Amino acid sequence: MRTIVTILVTFIVSTIGFSQNTILSSNPLTEHEINSIFTDSLKTKLEINYSVYRAYEYNDKGGKHFIVMTENKVKCDERKDCFDAIKVFCFLYKNGQYDLEWNLTDFILPKGNEVSEEYSISIWTKYFELNDHDNDGFIDPIIVYGTFAMNGTSDGRIKILVYHKGKKSAIRHQNGTLDFERNTQVDESYYQLPKVIQDNVQLIMKNITEDENGIFPYNWKNDMENQKLNFDEN
């Protein structure tokens, strides 16, 4: 009898573990899937008015979600493709309906800005993540995007956004070719995130630096350990 009970408990635990693994999933949509799902009529209904750059489907305890990344293309001389604005949407798909959970909009700074002359903005999908870092059954999207200015990304801006339990926390960074031009601002809510998420964001920042897409202030790791909200090279 004890053997039977042991086998039954093992089966139940294994089944629960398996079902938890199948709950969490994410994958990028192909161009064909994007066009099949997000038809012109649906995009109009959902107010998706820029070109779709990438789209992702993910599943967690909250259900099925779609993240749609869009960019507004403009003419420019500096790059092959330039965009003056981006919009990202996150929809919960349930019972045939797409309900907006959150969205973000950003754009290049207007010409004549005293900080830098930006000419393009783009979503850096290389650093985009759909993971459940804190193992609570809900995926926490991390989105990174940046702008290009006179010296490419060297004097553009970078934003890192974390969506956790329906709330957004942001890190905003102004790049610069000179030390004194660089500045990083961190939302107070960021430091309330689980440490495992903060550690992963720091890894992303490290990768951005190694890829030469940004230079954060010299003591940025120490500043973040001390939960500073604003830091630079001074």
Automatic annotation (TrEMBL):
This is Uncharacterized protein.
